[in-house]
Amino acid sequence: MKVGIFGGIGSYLSYLVWNNYNSNQVELYSLNTELQNEVVQNCPSLTSYRPPAFFCGFLHTVIPTISRPKEKHISFLEKLGDTGISVDFVDKGQSINSNQPLLLIIPGLTGKVQNGYVNSLITQAHQYGFNNICIYTYRMLSKEANFQFVPPFQDYGIDFQGADKEYFRDDVVAGQTTRVDLAADLHFTLKYIKDKYQFKQILAIGCSYGGVQLGNYLGRFQEHSYIDAGVTVCSPHNITDCERNISTIMDLTMTYILRRGLKINKHLFDDPKNYPQQWKPQISKAMKSLLVHQFDMYYTSQIYGYKSQVEYYKHFSSCERFQQITIPMLCIAAKDDYAVNIKALSLNKLLSNKQTIVCLAKSGGHIGFLEGLNADSTWFPKPALEFLQYFSKEQEMEFKAQ
User: pTM score, two decimals?
Assistant: First the structure.
């Protein structure tokens, strides 16, 4: 009798494993059927995701975070003057080739070269032939952040006298003070790289909050952007819905990460000369915050120039910018992402752009996407890199034909 019961359970579990490896694990969305078919044909990994059976989003998220990197990559930090902005060229040596595209990785709040998902992305990028790779470190995460720095094209694409006026503080609208403008910082960085190294193409992958920055930049700068094709991975395109639906454990975890990020440069706020006098950040309260919206109320919204965290979430949500994006985009997300709830994807708004394809996986957690029976590899870099590689070659062929 016991043998029969255990045999039945074993058979059922075997069926679940078999079914997992033989069923489609992703859903693709696009209003452009021709583009979708074209991408599927040229990006085989997009539909070949096979996650480990019985893995939940939490395991997908945690295991890559605590695992030791399989490979170590050497980074060469390049500072952009005294701005506090920098880029890490990975495994550079003397191998920069301006005739090959640059792969720019815009990480989330924890993105360093040796971090799990960034390390996996770099390793697989080399396998796909990408040799020019750099990691973008934005001003907010630098201990040498220059909060007085105003990049060229500050507030480009923002209408302070019209639709955008309601989101920003009066002193910002009136031009009495400046603010940290992440999109302008990114444009400044891209121009610096383009001018110095003369890359013919720049391709970008934005992970988590990095994808929000990427979407904002592309939507605001449109045809004036320096990026030729882009991918976002597990990005909260609707920050308001993300904050409303984030799980408690991830809310606490993300707030801890934010506090740790602020700890890097909070010493700069000891001297009022280091930042515009109109800013009113409450550093001590931010460092005691337990939840993300508290931290953003006391700190983030203040230095970004918003009236409150509510306006910040509404205005900075990249889903509102997608309709204006002029380049091919792939957005990868997971249904079981504990940090970025599926509601924060804003699928309909992303699909308002006919150059956008959304890939929604049944499981994968937050930038996890482990695959294989032993969960020994990461899936998302493959479709991301194939997508960028395909459009890179397409654009190169168009350029040669002209």
Answer: 0.92
